[in-house]
Amino acid sequence: MNTASMSPPRSALPASFTERAILCNLIRQEWYLSRGPVVLLAMIWLIGLWILVIFDHPAYLIAIGLCHVILVSPSQAGRDIIDGTEEFSFTLPPGRSPIYLARCAPGLAFLLVNGLLGSLTIAYSLPQRLWSLCFSGGLTDPFAPVSAIHWYGMAVLLPCAAHAVTVALAANARSRAVVNYSGMLGIAAAGSLMVFGFFLEDPLWQKPNGFIAGPMLFAMTVLVLRGGQHFYCGKEATGSGGAVGGVRRAGVLWFIAMLMGLLVCLAAFFWLWRSVAVRSSAEMERTLIRQENSVRQLQLRQQQIHSVPTPPVQPERDNH
């Protein structure tokens, strides 16, 4: 009698565990393929903030995040289009949704760590506290406080929104030209939305503070990533590296669109810089006027003190 045939079947692994393991393996593969530029950007972040301590503004974090969007995000999301393996990738067991999430998650994690940890480093002068344990010198001087604290939030939200647009465009692209220009288009879209939010904040609070731009960028990140996943799951595969007809014409059109988006973004940034400069000059003029008024009031008080007649001193009488 065959006892092996009567033994109960071995319980299979839960479906959630299998999907989680597949997603972790895909994320590990994406990290392995794009670890070069990511490690380079991490070294630049570490040297600029912790070793040399030469940058003390969230704009440095924004610059690193946007460099990641240009160098890493398009190649991660559009790797199948560049390599010409999209039709083969869609036939693999993991499915399209885990592939999309695996190509979006590593970049999003890097941008969150870059923005959050970098903002804490600058806001609380963590490198100076660490260096002060070893010696006292110029490196131990604390960072100058950033007056516009909304830039700490922009250091996280702006690169994440640009990354979301880039991933959605590159993953759903049908040609290499779209993948190559998706980073610049993502930066232009996120930057324009941020400046538009600042434009709405200016008449309400007399200065940009991120109360409108921040939620708009967060909503843009969530909605664009979710919409990109929806369209990617229903996308038709393109063979031979996205060699769909009219690649050159598509490249020219996308280059024009990228140039227009960049010009719009630069114009918006110029408007923002001009409005801030005008407001700063107006505040400086008001400060000078207040100082002049206080000096005049002090001079008037001194004149009034000196103009008060002093009573004559009477000679002392001799009682004898």
Helix content: over 70%
Categorize the overall geometry: elongated
* Main sheet characteristics: none
Overall structural domain count: 1
Give the topology string: H per helix, E per strand.
HHHHHHHHHHHH
Terminal CA distance reads 151 Å
What is the CA-based Rg, rounded? 31 Å
Number of strands: 0
| Average of pLDDT | 78
Uncertain residue segments: 1-13, 241-246
Give the class from helix and strand content and strand pairing.
mainly alpha
β-strand percent reads: under 5%
Structure report:
- By secondary structure, the protein is mostly helical.
- The protein has one domain (17-132, 141-300).
- Helices cover 72% and strands 0% of the residues.
- The chain has twelve helices and no strands.
- It has helices spanning 15-33, 35-51, 59-71, 73-77, 79-83, 86-89, 96-123, 126-131, 150-171, 176-205, 213-233, 247-307.
- The chain is elongated and about 120 Å long.
- Residues 1-13 and 241-246 have low confidence and may be disordered.
